[in-house]
Amino acid sequence: MTSNITRGNFLKGMAVGTVAGFFASQGISSTIFRSYLVPEKKRKSIDIGELKGITIKTISETSWFDNYVQQNDFKKAGGSLVSQYDVAFSTKGVAAGYQGNNAGGYSSLIEFEFMDGSKKKLLLDTGWNVDWMTRRYQEEGIDKMLRNNEIDVLFISHDHYDHYWGIEAAFKFKPDITMMIPNSFMENSYKLLSGGNFPKPPIKNAIPFKGKLIKHDLKKIYPLYPGVAAVTFACPCGRGVWGEQVLVCNVAGKGVATITGCCHMGLITLLEYIKNNIKGGDKVYGVYGGLHISPYDDWNPQNDDLVRTIRNYKVERLACNHCTGYITVEKMIATGVPVVKGTARNKTKRDIYLGNGDTMVL
């Protein structure tokens, strides 16, 4: 049956409240009326070049060890709107934690291999608990890589506590490393970088930063290496944090891959951006990182549609962890999303994550 509905007629036929309510409950990315309501974007097809391959090592995806403790800390501090620097996080007596501390951290090592055979290493995020991150850096040899100047850049996706507060662990081994951040850091995050001490969370950095600081404006794309670019998004991340940057890469003969910290902009938003802005973005070869879907496993049935939508982008390999809830990954697997599994070691609880110490090659 052929439909003669038009975008204009459809909007005229629905009350504003109905449209708003529909979007609120279903999400614009999942609506069957998307083609009528959202104008087709003009593609830019930015050519970021290509590279030979990528090797991703998960150093720590365990940002916190006990969901209940983490949620209760926020509740006691005043709820969802409280700034991260005003939360007294649990550092003692947590059975599942590291030495009783519920704080862990998120950090990954990314190695790029270029078409001429040369390589560059980038450290994505620095975690949270300095003691935990120091241990993980030493276990995976990151300490030696930093000391030997083998890591080119420290790339901070955003300044959330579990991605950024562990900077002292990295600065122990190389305080003058080149650092890239979104140009939307909180004032206190800059203070921490300079050697700040915040007793309440508690968090400190006893080793002030001495390197080159590169700030990326939001809503832009920054070429880093052949086939590699940083893409910045203006998005709310919660706890007073705004803006996140991700890595977008073009693997020769394979397609585009994306590497995220938390993906606060939303996975579908990210995949749409790649599709509409990056040359070759119609073919998504790989997705890695935290995807921020039901991080506390308090599943919202509306997310079922989001999980089903992932298949539309024909992602060939998807490795997730951190703020991607276990329920989310279970549903991805059940829906046919090609999830890359890990080994469930080094305090990563389940093998459906690419966990601590696991490697993904693209």
Structure report:
With 362 residues, the chain is an alpha/beta fold. It has two domains: 7-37, no CATH class; 53-361, Metallo-beta-lactamase, Chain A. The protein has helices at residues 7-12, 16-26, 34-37, 67-77, 130-139, 142-147, 161-164, 167-171, 187-193, 267-277, 303-310, 326-335; strands spanning 53-60, 107-113, 119-124, 151-155, 179-182, 197-198, 203-204, 213-216, 221-225, 228-238, 241-251, 255-260, 284-290, 317-321, 359-361. The strands form three sheets. Strands 8-5-4-3-2-1-15 form a seven-stranded mixed beta sheet. Strand 11 (241-251) and strand 12 form a beta hairpin. Helix 11 (303-310) packs across helix 12. The longest helix is centred in the first third of the chain and has 11 residues, at 16-26. It is globular and about 50 Å long. The N and C termini lie far apart (43 Å). Mean pLDDT is 90; it is low at 1-38.
Looking at CATH, which topology of the largest domain would you report? Metallo-beta-lactamase, Chain A
Helicity level = 25-40%
Give the rounded overall mean pLDDT: 90
CATH top level label of the largest domain: Alpha Beta
Q: Which spans have pLDDT < 50 for at least 5 consecutive residues?
A: 1-38
| Main sheet: strand order | 8-5-4-3-2-1-15
The rounded Rg comes to: 21 Å
How many β-strand runs?
Answer: 15
Morphology: globular
CATH architecture descriptor of the largest domain: 4-Layer Sandwich
Structural class: alpha/beta
**Element-level helix/strand string:** HHHEHEEHHEHHEHEEEEEEEHEHEHE
Number of helices: 12
Largest sheet: 7 strands, mixed
Q: Any idea what the CATH superfamily of the largest domain is called?
A: Ribonuclease Z/Hydroxyacylglutathione hydrolase-like
- Strand-residue fraction? 15-25%
How many structural domains are formed by the residues? 2
Separation of termini?
Answer: 43 Å
